[in-house]
Specification:
- With 384 residues, the chain is α/β, with parallel strands linked by helices.
- The chain folds into three domains: 8-99, Rossmann fold; 128-191, Dna Ligase, domain 1, CATH 3.30.1490; 199-373, D-amino Acid Aminotransferase, Chain A, domain 1 (2-Layer Sandwich), CATH 3.30.470.
- 34% of the residues lie in helices and 22% in strands.
- It is built from 14 helices and 15 strands.
- The strands form three sheets. Strands 13-12-9-10-11-14-15 form a seven-stranded mixed beta sheet, with helices on both faces.
- Helix 4 crosses helix 5 (112-121).
- The relative contact order is 0.14.
Length: 384
Amino acid sequence: MIHIKVYNVLLLEAEYRKVLPVVRAFARKGHNVYTVSLNKFSIGGSSKYVKKNYFVEQLTVQNVLEIVEKHNIDVIIPSNEKSVELLSSNEDKFIVPLVTPSMESYLICRDKLKTIQFAEKLGVRVPKTFTFKDYEDFKDHFDKIDISPLVLKPKSSAGSRGLLYIDNKEQLLNTLTKDYIDKYGFPLIQERIPSGGRPVGSSFLYYDGQEVLGFCHQRLREYPPSGGPSTLAVSIYDQEALDIGRKLLSNLKWNGLAMVEFKEDPRTSELILMEINPRMWGTIGLAIFSGADFTDAIVKVFLENVDPNDVDKEYKSGCYFRWVFPGDIMSIMLSKNLTAGQKFRELFRRYDNVTYQIAEKGDVKPIFAMLMYSIAKQFGHIIQ
């Protein structure tokens, strides 16, 4: 009989949907999972597989250390920016392994301008980007913007917050207002890659600058349609996406999880770098379902000192991921490219080899947590 060592795993910012399949994967292997949530309606923290979820109003080194000591935690995994920043900037205060990058590497990825500059030095293709010191500099050198359509991107915003699509320079002048700048800071102004190309992501686990595991997916639908998280995605194998991701993360001497996001240029079929997400990504559940088990890889390399080269790197392509409610339902209903009949068929379409982000028989509390989260967010009462 093979004896499997049981570890105590701590996941931070467990309120997010993406944490739920990670919780389930660790627990199914027999490990004890503890979570910390900054939201009372915690999707990951409400799973039946969680030994104990801690709700905190503020994430601090002290409250994380108290949980580590109380439960003899073996490894800490952040899921989003707040927890990555907390751990990366306080590495010296923890004696257990942290699945997190150095602060220097993290800040390059967190700042979209630094990401663009870093990628260009490595010869990675990026959208043409215009930068200005402030609004006055923008007005004085407006003529240097010589292309359209464009997109506005806050330098450090996550997701689609502050993302605006601009059709021409006149619209740019009307859109880039003082209110926008006060809210998001002065943004990057980039060329908009034409639609029609594949949105592709290559995701990785790194240990001390060395790749442990890689995975690729293609986004099929998203919500909001203007650039939100995936609501429907499929596992693929894309050598170009994997190679570019490796080049970027290896040169960053990465440690931990990251997802490198691309958009295919339909004019050239080249992959254009959009951003590097320096954290756990939304479709990590698809990776695990497809056989790229990042939870198992974390245990082997971060806790059991297995050589990263010896970790199984095979996974299946053609597996699907779906976030049904409200994500994919809203994505379908708001689509401008589908007829009413097509929308009906897509709503009820069945997929083979599919994993659902939230729903799982016997683990229903996360569904209610997501509903409460959505209602509270709609009415502005989210506690974070």
